[in-house]
User: What shape does this take?
Amino acid sequence: MTAPTGPAQALVRTFTQRFSCTPRGARLARQLALVELHDWGIPESTALSADAGLLVAELAANAVTHGRVPGRDFEVRMTLLEGVLRVEVSDARGDRRPVVRPHGYQAESGYGLRIVDAVAEDWGVMDRLIGKTVWAELGRRAAAVARMRQMVAGGEIDFSGRDTPRVGDPLPVPR
Assistant: This one.
């Protein structure tokens, strides 16, 4: 019997949990997210774990503060696929969508979305049947670097005889 020769299967990890729409629920969301990341092999001492914990904390706090509907919970979903971690926080208020304010804007409250904007490689808002989902992604750059190294090691990319590229080199062309 031979092994299948098709495309490699990517390992996908998913965590989904609903929390009470209270400050305590937001704290618990961050703590459980960090525990889940640790179970996935991303220890709490890593930058990815710290950034993910910060994103969950800020997005959950926003859901509790601005997206609360009495009697409704908020939901946290984390998905890890090929080195990209996507954090999603959903709440029941679709009418209040987050906006990043320009620097110098005098806000009545904190700077949560500026933090999300600074930490996440990408983020946005999606509608859902009831409410909205605010999502943020981490690790895309790290995944791209790993793929580039893999292509160099496999001979798919040629740097004209040099072992490593230098700043200012043209982009490599796959063969």
Summary: The longest helix spans residues 47-66. The longest strand covers residues 12-19. The chain has a mean pLDDT of 79. The CA atoms of residues 38 and 46 lie 10 Å apart.
